[in-house]
Write the structure tokens for this entry.
Amino acid sequence: MAGSVALMNLLDVTLVAFVAHGARVFDSAGGIVAWCRVNGIARATFYRHLARVREQGSWAPRSRRPRRSPGATPQRVVDAILVLRAALGPDNGAVSIHYHLGQDRTLTGMRIPSPATIHKILRRAGLVTAQPRKRPRSSWRRFSYARPRDCYQIDATIVALAGGAKVVVFEVLDDATRTLVATRAALTENAADAVAAIRAAFADFGVPAIVLSDNGMAFTAHRTNGGTSRFTRTVTEAGARLIHSSPYHPQTCGKVERHHRTFKDWLATHPTPATLEQLQARCDRYQHWYNTVRPHSVHNAPPFTAWQDTAELGGPQHLPLQQDASVCTRKVTPVGTIKCANTTISVGMPLAGEHLTVVRDGQHLTIYDPDGTAIGHLVIDPTKKHQGRLTPAA
């Protein structure tokens, strides 16, 4: 290939010298025929290039693009894609635009391009920033509950007001549908506002089977003050089961933590609120937009639409369903063991009589005490009937 390119470059330079500058490069014995034979260039190629140089003064490769492209995306649809990108904001990529194109009645009867094609159109328009080091979707391993209200995730994120003061926003997200079931602005990450946020979620969307939180003081104050935290009592008295995330838990709070970024991206496109009341008003507006307008890539529909389309809702009356893991409760025997996955696991005699929550992800088990605190984890050895003791949670 490199030799072929070099020959074409030689031919073009020679022809420009011959045509434009009158160089007598083909006056030797044999003329053009001999020159082509010596340099290994077909005469048809020589005369094709000669005609182009005489016409244009130089040789430049012409576009190979076909004169007609019947399968190309119509310009009307391309324009609609670019308008939607500007209207929806940079947080809305090809999947969101694909959803909204399907809702556009002015495009009825026209073929809506796939998200991949929409992404190419955005890239050609310079509206997509290349991220070659970004982790590919093919490497993702999704973990979620099967039904709405199987599990709510709660977490708080820091937001700055117009004057620079730092406040927080508690967000409660349904694990299965990503519906934002509550959002509450607060001065600090404290138990009272955490309780208010989870109560609002319970009142508006119902009580789930599980509430998942991190180990923040707003959710686990009993670890320093003694007794049971106010947040724990609120969750358990409603009938739900509280679980605190840990490094060994496959159901981390990753969904709600990722959602913080979506919320802050949206917030950045609006005037910065000056007071907590203004921030709460923004949160209420965002919650409605996120739940009912913005499609989520998991469902290709807004989260609350996915909630409404689900045939069955979860809740405290039964354990949550999962498509890629299992959750169960096991009572500890008087000798400090539980039975799970056709094997015996030692959890310690001090827990005798307690009902523990066991989350199984393949052969990996994580076990939680009644307060939702991780006791430990292990990987099951199928060749053994007795697995021995757990590895303590970090």
Summary: The radius of gyration is 32 Å. Residues 2-20 form the longest helix (19 residues). The mean pLDDT is 84.
